[in-house]
């Protein structure tokens, strides 16, 4: 779900003043065991993270960025001059950007269970010396919030000025406001939902089945066989991509365009949309871990703040919330439709919480949350500028 | 009142009347809230708390800059996102005349709010009447549009609105008629250019 055209970064010699520039990931180690929602316990784990900007003396300007299904800690800037692309939300975060690193101390992390450096299924299990594989426990959005809070503890951050996320990241921001009402002043919940619909879970299960039935999956322990279930992961990603785009944008971008200009009467790539999806699938299958993909989709499916509130209403589940909210949805997002964001808004209204809700007109479907749109970005900028750090006149 | 509040008050003549009517600390829903200046004014003058509702992107942005809670939605589709009786006042300030579903919004306002405050430009104002007699659609300070570009599709006079209230079983609690910032008590339907009503639903 990366933007198709990230901000261009010309050369190292003329750096973009709105880029955070070069960043180095850091690793936080945790030796206090964590009991996960599933009941499983991880004795120790690591989280890899990046930070941009400076933590102020009052330590009240920290902003946590939560990533979605395929995201990671590399939110903004570049790791080296050889990077072709900046971090996945570089358009949003940087000096003078909507989430302004001149003012905020921004943290991006790779969630527990991820495959970009944090402890996950592909990490070595200290008990066996082998990758966890199928033995890595399932994690939930609650578990991520817990581990993120522990990271905040290590960094000396008692309270976040804001927790920000799109899609699955938005769910984490919402969960933060429920689990730690005292530790979050604002939540920016973008292109999210209070829980997945049956249709959404169905998509996720087809994606999982593609991976689980790949002969190279080996029950999740494919590392030992020195193979990866690329076919399954590729299919899962292709399916995902279809649901992240709108019918309109697919039509305008690809239509029925043919690569060769004429029907070939075979099963090779003929339509441009096939070419695009296969390319995206292949690229993803090269770089992402299948077990992490499975685990992330399950975290999406399990998310439901009412589940541990005796299946009460969302309004009841949000009773303890104190944060102010910016809720944003996109008109053509059918995977996390505006109606779903409205459910969150309604629950916040019922609890008389501060909330602003915006419905951005966009043709880009779910992917719109990663795209540059003047209204969307201006709105996030305006909301962030209103956050009081004791420096606003 | 500080200078900024005075500026707000001048901006829309009905603000002051509304501020006098709402109880301090009340919970308010402002429909068609524009840039949020009424809510901000009421917040400062009366310590009210609430939300604005708007549809236009630039107004959502302006409200956010103003530090006012705002919900982006189309009023024409009703107020289904709001619980019945969840606000002390629902305000519709100079928006009624541009709504397509006039009856429905009145009913929705009085479902969601215990009381509603409605303000609109008085089509019965003498200058408007003269212009019609002279053969033209009226254009004035309160109706600044030409017939071909006006958003105002449901203009009415004080008498029309009061008859409308009877039809909807709505009781008028208070009325203020204004012209250029001054109360009009003599021949209000002729001399007043702006009407402000506070109403409630009779069961």
Describe the structure.
With 393 residues, chain A is an alpha/beta fold. Chain A has helices at residues 141-154, 168-179, 198-212, 230-244, 247-253, 272-287, 290-302, 314-317, 338-350, 374-386, and strands spanning 26-30, 34-35, 41-42, 45-52, 62-66, 93-94, 99-100, 105-109, 162-166, 186-190, 324-330, 355-360. The longest helix of chain A has 16 residues, at 272-287. In chain B, 34% of the residues lie in helices and 25% in strands. Chain B is built from eight helices and eight strands. Chain B has an eight-stranded mixed β-sheet, with helices on both faces. In chain B, helix 5 (102-112) links the parallel strand 4 (87-93) and strand 5 (113-121). In chain B, helix 2 (14-21) crosses helix 3. Chain B is globular. The relative contact order of chain B is 0.14. Mean pLDDT of chain B is 92; it is low at 1-10. Chains A and B meet through helix 9, strand 12 and helix 10 of A and helix 4 and strand 3 of B.
Question: Which keywords apply here?
Answer:
heterodimer, A: 393 residues, alpha/beta, eight-stranded mixed β-sheet, two-stranded antiparallel sheet, disordered N terminus, B: 203 residues, 8 helices, 34% helix, 25% strand, globular
* Alpha-carbon distance between the two ends of chain B: 39 Å
Low-confidence region ranges of chain A: 1-13
Beta-strand content estimate of chain A? 5-15%
Largest sheet of chain A, if any?
8 strands, mixed
Q: How is the quaternary structure best described?
A: heterodimer
Widest sheet, order of strands of chain A: 1-4-8-5-9-10-11-12
- Outline of chain A: globular
Helices and strands in order:
The complex is a heterodimer of chains A (393) and B (203).
Chain A: E1 26-30, E2 34-35, E3 41-42, E4 45-52, E5 62-66, E6 93-94, E7 99-100, E8 105-109, H1 141-154, E9 162-166, H2 168-179, E10 186-190, H3 198-212, H4 230-244, H5 247-253, H6 272-287, H7 290-302, H8 314-317, E11 324-330, H9 338-350, E12 355-360, H10 374-386
Parallel strand pairs in A: 5-8, 5-9, 6-7, 9-10, 10-11, 11-12
Antiparallel strand pairs in A: 1-4, 2-3, 4-8
Chain B: H1 3-11, H2 14-21, E1 27-31, H3 37-46, E2 49-54, H4 57-65, E3 70-72, E4 87-93, H5 102-112, E5 113-121, H6 126-133, H7 158-167, E6 170-179, E7 182-183, H8 188-191, E8 194-201
Helix pairs in contact in B: 2-3
């Amino acid at each position: 779900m990366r933007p198709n055209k990230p901000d261009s970064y010309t050369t190292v010699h003329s750096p973009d003043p709105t880029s955070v520039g070069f960043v180095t990931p850091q690793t936080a180690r945790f030796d206090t065991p964590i009991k996960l929602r599933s009941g499983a316990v991880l004795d120790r784990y690591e989280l890899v993270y990046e930070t941009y900007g400076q933590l102020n003396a009052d330590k009240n300007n920290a902003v946590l960025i939560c990533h979605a299904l395929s995201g990671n800690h590399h939110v903004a800037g570049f790791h080296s001059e050889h990077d072709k692309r900046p971090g996945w939300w570089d358009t949003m975060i940087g000096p003078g950007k909507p989430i302004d690193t001149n003012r905020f101390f921004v943290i991006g992390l790779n969630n527990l269970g991820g495959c970009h450096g944090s402890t996950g299924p592909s990490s070595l299990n200290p008990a066996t010396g082998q990758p966890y594989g199928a033995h890595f426990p399932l994690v939930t959005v609650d578990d991520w919030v817990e581990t993120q809070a522990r990271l905040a503890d290590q960094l000396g951050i008692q309270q976040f000025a804001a927790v920000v996320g799109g899609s699955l990241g938005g769910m984490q921001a919402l969960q933060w406001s429920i689990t730690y009402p005292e530790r979050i002043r604002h939540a920016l919940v973008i292109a999210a939902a209070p829980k997945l619909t049956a249709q959404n879970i169905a998509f996720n299960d087809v994606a999982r089945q593609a991976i689980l039935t790949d002969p190279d999956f080996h029950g999740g322990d494919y590392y030992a066989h020195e193979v990866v279930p690329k076919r399954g992961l590729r299919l899962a990603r292709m399916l995902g991509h279809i649901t992240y785009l709108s019918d309109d944008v697919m039509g305008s971008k690809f239509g029925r365009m043919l690569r060769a200009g004429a029907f070939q009467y075979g099963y090779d790539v003929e339509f441009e949309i096939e070419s695009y999806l296969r390319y995206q699938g292949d690229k993803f299958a090269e770089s992402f871990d299948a077990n992490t993909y499975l685990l992330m989709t399950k975290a999406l499916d399990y998310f439901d703040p009412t589940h541990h509130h005796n299946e009460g209403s969302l309004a009841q589940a949000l009773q303890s919330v104190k944060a102010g909210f910016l809720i944003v949805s996109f008109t053509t997002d059918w995977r996390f439709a505006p109606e779903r964001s409205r459910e969150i808004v309604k629950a916040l209204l019922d609890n008389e919480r501060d909330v602003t809700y915006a419905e951005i007109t966009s043709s880009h479907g779910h992917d719109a949350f990663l795209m540059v749109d003047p209204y969307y970005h201006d709105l996030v900028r305006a909301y962030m500028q209103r956050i009081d750090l004791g420096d606003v006149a | 009142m500080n200078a900024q509040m005075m500026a707000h008050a001048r901006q829309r003549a009905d603000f002051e009347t509304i501020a006098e009517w709402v109880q301090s600390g009340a919970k308010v829903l402002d429909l068609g809230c524009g840039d949020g200046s009424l809510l901000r004014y009421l917040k400062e003058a009366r310590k009210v708390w609430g939300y604005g509702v708007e549809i236009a992107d630039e107004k959502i942005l302006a409200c956010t800059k103003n530090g006012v809670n705002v919900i982006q939605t189309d009023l024409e589709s009703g107020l289904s996102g709001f619980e019945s009786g969840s606000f002390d006042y629902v305000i519709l300030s100079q928006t009624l005349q541009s709504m397509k579903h006039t009856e429905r919004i009145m009913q929705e306002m009085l479902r969601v709010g215990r009381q509603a405050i409605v303000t609109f430009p008085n089509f019965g104002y003498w200058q408007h009447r003269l212009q019609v007699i002279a053969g033209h659609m009226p254009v004035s300070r309160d109706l600044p549009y030409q017939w071909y570009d006006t958003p105002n599709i449901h203009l009415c006079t004080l008498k029309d609105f009061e008859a409308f209230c009877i039809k909807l079983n709505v009781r008028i609690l208070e009325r203020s008629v204004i012209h250029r910032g001054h109360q009009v008590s003599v021949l209000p339907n002729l001399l007043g250019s702006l009407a402000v009503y506070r109403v409630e639903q009779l069961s």
